[in-house]
């Protein structure tokens, strides 16, 4: 990390702390005069994640409490036009190249198709994707594809109906499977399935991989991170990337083929000689913070530079107070300049973020 900083001519001294949510920010002293979302460690954010709701149709035990997350009043959520404007600023002024809509569950927004279509009109060359649980996707996949959605990531941990219901607290596996098939049929390519690795479903890993290969979906296993709403995550209990590989190796011959992109988090493994591959994202045991290229907007319109950094900068307030695009872009640059080096899960005294994954967006 140090060599990268020196090569880019960036200062290694610490800067003043980032503003807390609701404050305004100016560019920190020492930031180079560059338009991109560069941070103190030389990383440049090109990948924008936009959460559009905290609501979800499932209640996964490792993500949400059974009663769901606190409801965000509608007037505090970014509107369709505000989302489109911020995406336009990100692309035109800040060098963002791809954008993913997240939640909560994006399908819970009635104006989801309008959001996608608006972003596509504003940024014709932007790569637009979405993360979803696929409940209800079968009815909307074609419309989303026509609106300009390029691809989709779908969360699914098991194809065992009983265990799915135990994990999500909802018996909706048939709806999810139908949604995945509809996404494939609509040409949302690639359709990626994201499975959180945890003890209850480790034995289902091979069945899930077989199902994805048969249906034309690309499977990624992800180590569970301490982002659950009820703070029940324990490092000693987590299923690691190594555990997943060992389990899959009981049924398949796996050959490592590396990453398809340096900033992509998944390490890829060829399955039984190919062409199928499976990805393993070792978020905890094999962190990729050094190459992180993400910037995030919460559903309320605050910039969050890191999943594990609780400091946020309010862009919604700037938009609604009449700020021009250049001012909003400068606020965004300042927020990202102060991005932390990494998530710090292995550091003594690590404290999980106040907001859970469902409140931040993936």
Tell me how many strands there are. 14
Helix content: 25-40%
Q: What is the CA-atom radius of gyration, in angstroms? A: 20 Å
CATH class: Alpha Beta
Number of helical segments with 4 or more residues: 11
- Report the span from N to C terminus: 25 Å
Mean pLDDT: 86
| CATH level 4 superfamily | Aldolase class I
Large-scale geometry: globular
* Largest beta-sheet details: 12 strands, mixed
CATH fold label: TIM Barrel
CATH architecture: Alpha-Beta Barrel
What is the count of distinct domains?
1
> Which residue ranges are poorly predicted, with pLDDT under 50 across at least 5 consecutive positions?
1-27
What pattern of helices and strands is seen along the backbone?
HEEEHEHEHEHHEHEHEEEEEEHHH
Arrangement of strands in the largest sheet: 9-10-11-8-7-6-5-4-3-12-13-14
By secondary-structure content and strand pairing, the structural class works out as alpha/beta
Please indicate the percent range of residues in DSSP E strands (runs of 2 or more): 15-25%
Textual characterization of the structure:
This protein has a single domain, classed as TIM Barrel, CATH 3.20.20.70. The protein is of the alpha/beta class and 362 residues long. It contains 11 helices and 14 strands. The relative contact order is 0.17. The strands form 2 sheets. It has a 12-stranded mixed sheet. A two-stranded antiparallel sheet has the order 1-2.
